[in-house]
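Weekly puzzle thread! Below is a chain. First person to post its structure in token form gets bragging rights.
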Amino acid sequence: MNRWLASGYVLLGAMCYGSISTITKLAFQRGFSPAEISSGQVTFGCLVLWLFALPMWKKLRCVPRKSIFLLTLTGAVFGLTEIFYTLCLSKIPASIAVILLFQSIWMTQIVQMIQEKTWPSKALSISLMSIVLGTICASGFSMHDLKGLNMVGVALGLCSALSYTASMVVSGSVTTEVPSLLRSSFMVTGQMLFIFLVYPPTVLFTASMGQGLWFWIGLLGMIGIVATTFAYNKGMPQISPGLAGVLVSIELPMVILLSSTILKENVSLIQWMGVGCILIGIILTSVKTNQEKTPASISPID
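Winning reply:
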């Protein structure tokens, strides 16, 4: 797989992930709780992935137990990000929470610097500055939001960025010899088990299932769990953590676009300018990186 295709997979996964907030808000408007949505979508997504993986059941015997454990643990890190970010949103304004989450952009660059023992190029530095500036503008941040800021919320936001960074780095490097579909299934299983610690699945056995909850957890499960996890597992092993960190910033423009068109929320000119800065940064980074020599696939059995 070449880098352009791998980058496309990561962009697709990030766009799917960016649509989750809009769909979740629509579900909330219909009276469903965070517990029902969170535990329901991950359960549905896990079941669908394992159904898709049934034809590969024979290959499962060849997967070492250590690999299964590492993949399940990696999935738990994804679940940890969701928990941290949800708690962060409960304590500080969403505009600040988004900025804190997207600190993962420069965190992934630090990881890559440590791994490759090199400094970011001038072009990459300019792209990162464009993305960070765009994130601040697109989030709708204002100085008024800083008044009386809850430091616990800030800490939770930074923790969500750290866990998100860890999940991107690990998903691109752990047991890459395992086929993407099996990797995705094990990772989502880990994510499901972790979320069940916070939101027990007992909420799924309520009257809400008969009131249309199945539709929303099915939609979120397919887009936010199945499509996102599979796309990340296909693309991230083929690109660097730094490029992955840049590409996933497409999530915020996706949130802004869907909020404006579907939720009919007011989006200011500054926010649209921020979206433009993010897109410019992504394009510059992708073109510069993908002009380099394309590496050979590291997942020959996929």
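Puzzle host: Confirmed. Bonus trivia for everyone else. Residues 293-302 have pLDDT under 50 and may be disordered.
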